Amino acid sequence: MWWIVWLVICVGCVIIEASSPQLTSIWFAAGAFCALIVSFIAPGLWWLQLIVFVAVSAAALALTRPLAKKLTSQKKERMNADRFIGEEAVVIQRIDNVSGEGQVKSKGVIWSARAEDDDMIIDEGETVIIKRIEGVKVIVNKERNE
Q1: What domain range includes position 118?
Q2: Residue 135's domain is classified under what CATH number?
Q3: pLDDT tens digit string along 18-50?
Q4: Between the CA of residue 92 and those of 84, 127, 143, what are the distances in Å?
Q5: Based on the domain organization, do 15 and 50 belong to the same domain?
Q6: Each residue's pLDDT tens digit, 57-98
Q7: Judgement on whether residues 108 and 50 belong to the same structural domain of the protein
Q8: Is 60 exposed, middle or buried, given 0-12, 13-18 or 19+ CB atoms closer than 10 A?
Q9: Number of structural domains, the chain?
Q10: Is-above-0.85 flag for pTM?
Q11: Contacts of 90 (CB under 8 A, 6+ apart)
Q12: In a domain, 146, yes or no
């Protein structure tokens, strides 16, 4: 009779594991599977089955969790437009916030640009630092430090 309980736990853990992108219950599925095997060998010893379940689950968790965590953790990489923040750019069209004009080129990409300081005018050919992105425009400054 206990074999049904262990089978349900094992299948349930496998279903949970299959529906989750992270490792969440595979250790308990292994413990339930071992307890299922013990339930056929010693059907009347439910306490032994429970001990096997706990021991195998704990051992599997202790042995594989650090490795699984190392393999699934990913270094956060800046994507898309974020990779331009903090980078140098060359002014290809004079930046003047009052007249609403200005363009820079960084990493081969041309951006509409505005100066961080509204009173600042930055001439063509100067090198600037991209401070942030607002919509489709980069906000630039001549100094690297804020």
Answers
A1: 80-141
A2: 2.40.50.140
A3: 888 777 788 899 999 999 999 999 888 889 999
A4: 16, 10, 18
A5: yes
A6: 999 888 887 777 776 666 666 567 778 888 899 999 999 999
A7: no
A8: middle
A9: 2
A10: no
A11: 104, 105, 106, 125, 126, 127, 128
A12: no
